[in-house]
Design goal:
The protein contains eight helices and seven strands. It is α/β, with parallel strands linked by helices and 288 residues long.
Length: 288
C-alpha cells in the first residue's frame, strides 16, 4: 500500500499538538512503567503501540528509554527508514484480528486516536488486557472532535456544528467505525478487568484564541493540523472526505466546500470553540 505523504504530515502534526496540550510531566505518557531491565532475569521492558502510524511516538519514546523494547503495529507502514535499534514496526497488521504477539508479554500498551478506525473497542480492550503482563499498564489517548464552546460565541446552527453532527459523525457509525467519543470508557475498561483507572482531559482550542499559554500553543497546532495548504495537516478534510463521498454520496468538490466553510468558522478567533483531549490509563491487576 503506498504511503500518503499528506497523511504522514497530518499524523506528525497531530502528535505535536497532543504533546503541546499535555502537561510537561506527561508529554509522552501518563501511565507509569519501569523502563529498566528486570534485575533478576535481565529482560527488557516491552511496549506496544497500536496503530503506530509514522512511528513518531515510538521514536520519541525509544530515544528517552533506550533499555526498552518498542513494537508498533499498523495496517500501513509509514515509519521512516533507519529506526532506532529498539523499535520493531510490523505491517500490515489488522489489530482487530487475532494477535500473535505473545499474551502476557507487554509491560505497557499504547493506543492513540483509534476513533474512526476501531470497530469494537470492548473486544480490543479485552485483547490488550490479555497481552499485558500482570501489573502492566494500558494508555488510551483520544480527541473528542465534537465542537464545544463555553461562551456562546459558536453558532449552534452554524456550519461547524452541522459539519460534525449532521454530515460527518453519523456515517462513521453506519460503516461500523464510530468516531464519536464514548463517555462510557471507564465502565468498558472496568468491565474488561482493568483496575487503577485514571482519566485526564485537556482543552484543545480550535485556533489560537486562548490567552493561556499551553492552550494557545495547542490551539495554534490544532489550526495547523486541520487547515489546508502546503505543510498543513489537512485534518478536517481527512476526517470528512471518505464518509461524505462514499457513504453520503457527495462529490469531492461538494465535500471540500463543506470542509472549507466549517474550517472558516473553526479558525475564526472571535469564535471560542474547542475540542477535548481525553487520556485514560489503567492497570492489569498484579494478581488478576
Amino acid at each position: 500500500m503506498p504511503v500518503d505523504q499528506k497523511e504522514q504530515e497530518r499524523l506528525d502534526i497531530m502528535h505535536t499538538m497532543i504533546l503541546a496540550a499535555r502537561p510537561r510531566k506527561g508529554r509522552l505518557h501518563h501511565a507509569p512503567f519501569n523502563p529498566r531491565p528486570d534485575p533478576v532475569t535481565g529482560d527488557h521492558p516491552r511496549v506496544l503501540d497500536i496503530g503506530s502510524g509514522t512511528a513518531i511516538w515510538l521514536l520519541d519514546m525509544a530515544e528517552k528509554y533506550a533499555d526498552t523494547e518498542f513494537y508498533g503495529v499498523d495496517m500501513t507502514n509509514m515509519a521512516p527508514e533507519g529506526l532506532y535499534h529498539n523499535i520493531d514496526v510490523r505491517s500490515p497488521v489488522d489489530y482487530e484480528s487475532p494477535w500473535a504477539m505473545g499474551e502476557g508479554s507487554f509491560d505497557y500498551i499504547h493506543l492513540q486516536m483509534g476513533l474512526g478506525s476501531v470497530g469494537n473497542f470492548p473486544l480490543l480492550y479485552e485483547k490488550i488486557y490479555r497481552h499485558l503482563k500482570p501489573g502492566g499498564w494500558f494508555e488510551h489517548v483520544e480527541i473528542d472532535f465534537a465542537p464545544q464552546c463555553m461562551d456562546k460565541t459558536l453558532p449552534p446552527e452554524g456550519l461547524l456544528m452541522k459539519w460534525w453532527h449532521t454530515y460527518v459523525a453519523p456515517p462513521y457509525g453506519v460503516v461500523g467505525r464510530p468516531i464519536v467519543y464514548d463517555p462510557n470508557t471507564e465502565h468498558l475498561l472496568h468491565q474488561k478487568g482493568f483496575s487503577n483507572i485514571k482519566h485526564e482531559e485537556y482543552m484543545l482550542p480550535l485556533n489560537g484564541w486562548s490567552g493561556e499559554t499551553s492552550r494557545h500553543v495547542s490551539g495554534t497546532w490544532w489550526e495547523h493540523a486541520m487547515s489546508f495548504g502546503e505543510g498543513r495537516g489537512h485534518g478536517l478534510e481527512a476526517l470528512s472526505l471518505a464518509v461524505l463521498t462514499r457513504v453520503q454520496g457527495w462529490s469531492p468538490e461538494h465535500a471540500r466546500r463543506l470542509c472549507e466553510d466549517a474550517l472558516r468558522e473553526a479558525t475564526d478567533p472571535a469564535i471560542h470553540a474547542y475540542n477535548t483531549l481525553h487520556i485514560w490509563w489503567a492497570q492489569k491487576p498484579p494478581n488478576p
